[in-house]
Design brief:
Layout (H helix, E strand, L loop, with lengths): L15 H6 L7 E4 L6 H11 L4 E3 L3 E2 L14 E2 L2 H9 L3 E7 L2 E6 H10 L2 E5 L2 H9 L5 E6 L3 H11 L4 H20 L6 E4 L3 H11 L1 H12 L1
Parallel strand pairs: 1-7, 1-8, 2-7, 3-4, 8-9
Antiparallel strand pairs: 3-6, 5-6
Length: 221
């Protein structure tokens, strides 16, 4: 890949398999999709409307925070040195390098959600989805995407948070990911095309209704 170095390191190590199967039999929800597809907006609304239902596994990243982002809420903003040390110490379930930034899902972040008894939600890149899927972990995989690359570009430009170079990298990455999805449709249990936010949100909630009912039944038991 020209301009993008994207690497996932994932292996079944001691404790990782336990994370995904010690969740009171409620599947974690793995969300994926290109930046600008609307997944963060959908997740934010779901967690606001159902604060006792969902817990977001906050990822680590070496990138700088955008306007409005809070450390420990949107990401754990981590120095490159700290991130590399965490990788060496096998603290991540998966990690990836996009451009010059590293992203990763730590075991600690997942454990933190599990301990609350809530449904764990993970936001992963496509390669992370494939890694977890190939390892036969029990999870529900949902892709959320914009209807077209043109619409995705329009949304990214409207955010005004990207340089032209980083925007083009994201678009290139999105195109490549969608080609993979077309060739590997089994990667996801549900694919949501976000051409209308209300419809996309309702579809997302429909996709996870079984997990919600399962958790609600335990709260009322």
């Amino acid at each position: 890949m020209i301009g993008i170095v994207f690497t996932i390191i994932f292996s079944i190590r001691r404790g990782i398999h336990h994370l995904f199967f010690n969740m009171n039999n409620i599947c974690p929800i793995v969300i994926s999709g290109p930046s600008g597809g609307g997944k963060s907006t959908i997740l934010t609304r779901a967690m606001k409307e159902y604060p006792d239902m969902f817990g977001f596994s906050v990822s680590n990243t070496t990138r700088q925070p955008r306007e409005g982002e809070q450390n420990g809420v949107h990401y754990w903003f981590t120095s490159k040195y700290e991130m590399e040390e965490m990788i060496k110490n096998n603290e991540f379930i998966e990690y990836a390098t996009f451009g010059s930034n590293i992203y990763g899902t730590s075991k600690k972040a997942v454990e933190t959600v599990i301990k609350t008894g809530k449904i764990c939600i993970l936001d992963l890149e496509l390669q992370g989805v494939r890694s977890i899927k190939n390892a036969n972990f029990k999870a529900k995989f949902i892709l959320i995407k914009a209807p077209t690359i043109e619409e995705l570009e329009k949304r990214l430009r409207a955010r005004n948070t990207e340089t032209e170079e980083s925007l083009q990298l994201r678009l290139k990455h999105a195109k490549e990911d969608m080609e993979v999805v077309d060739n590997e449709p089994h990667l996801f249990d549900h694919i949501i095309v976000n051409d209308d936010f209300e419809n996309a949100y309702n579809k997302f909630m429909e996709c996870i209704k079984d997990e919600i009912k399962q958790l609600q039944s335990r709260h009322t038991a």
